[in-house]
Request: fold
Amino acid sequence: MIEIFDNKEYKKLIAKISDRFQKAKQRAYKSINDELTLSNWETGKYIVEFEQKGNLKAEYGMKLLDKLSKDLTAIHGTGFSRSNLVYMRLFYIKYPKGVTASHLLSWSHYYELLKIKDDTERKFYENQIIIENWSVRELRRQKRTGLFQRIALSKDKKEILDLAKKGYKPKNEKDLIKDPYVFEFLGIPHNDLLSESQLETKLIDNLQQFLLELGKGFAFVGRQYKITLANKHNFIDLVFYNYILKCFVLIDLKISEVEHKDIGQMITYLNYFNKEVINETDNETIGIILAAEKDDVFVEYATATLSNKLAVGEYQLYLPDKKILKEKVKEILNDK
Reply:
C-alpha cells in the first residue's frame, strides 16, 4: 500500500489537486477584487448624483465627504476613509461610462491612475498595465520615472495621442528607445564613478527591473557574448531576444559620449548576427548603444544612411525631472 503513495501517478494527483486549488484561489481573489472595484465606482456615482441633485457647492461637497467617512466607517469599519471617498468620487468622474470587465484593473491600480491629472498620460498607463500586466509597484515605478514622457519625446503629436489610445507596442528599433532610460533602481551614489563592466554587472544583478525598463517582450540571452572574427574574439555587452519583434537585440554600454567607432563596432556585431546567428524565422537583429551622453546631431548624421537597424539611446542613473519632461511633451501636443 505504501508503494501507491510513492509512485508517479500519486505525485501527479497531488500536483493536479494543488494546481486546481491555486487556480480557484486566484479566481476567487479576482472576483472579490472586481466586485470591490465596481462597488467603489458605484459609490462615486452615488456621491456625484447626490451632489448634483442637491446642487452642492464645492465647500459643501467636502463637508459631505467628511460626514460620509465618519458615518460609513462607524457602520463598516475600514474602507471608507475620506481620502478613499475622494478617489471613489473621482473614479466616477474620470470614468463616467464605467469600466468594462476586459479592462477591469484592481482598485489599487485605479487609485494610482487617478493621481495623474492629465487624461492622455493616464490613459497611456492604463493601457500599459493591461498590455504588460504591471503590478501596482511596477506602475508606481514607471510613473515615478516618467515613462510616458520619455517615450513621447521621440514622437509627434499624432503619435503621442495614438500612444495614449492604444498603448506602447514596439514595431521597430526606434520604438524601443526611451529618452532617456532610467537606472535609478541600481542605487548608485551620485559621487560614484562606474566602469562599463561594473555598470553591466549591476544591470544583470537587477535583471528583473532592467527588463521592466527595457519594455515588453525582452528575454535575456547572455552577457559578454563572444563572437570570433579574423581570428580575434569580440564580446557584446548584453544580448536579448525580443519575442514581439522576433529578433535578437544587442546592447552596448558606454559610460561616456557615443563616438563614431562605437557605431562602427555595433554595425560589425549586427552584420555578424544577421549572417551567422539568426535563422529564417528571425527578423534582422537590432542594435542599441546605451550611452551616458549623446550628441543628437552627430547620431543623426552617423546613422542616416545605414541599412542596419541601429539606435542610440541615453541613460541616466537618477530619477529625471518630471516637470521638465512634462513641459516638453506639452509643447509637442500644443504645437499646431
In short: The two ends are 81 Å apart (CA to CA).
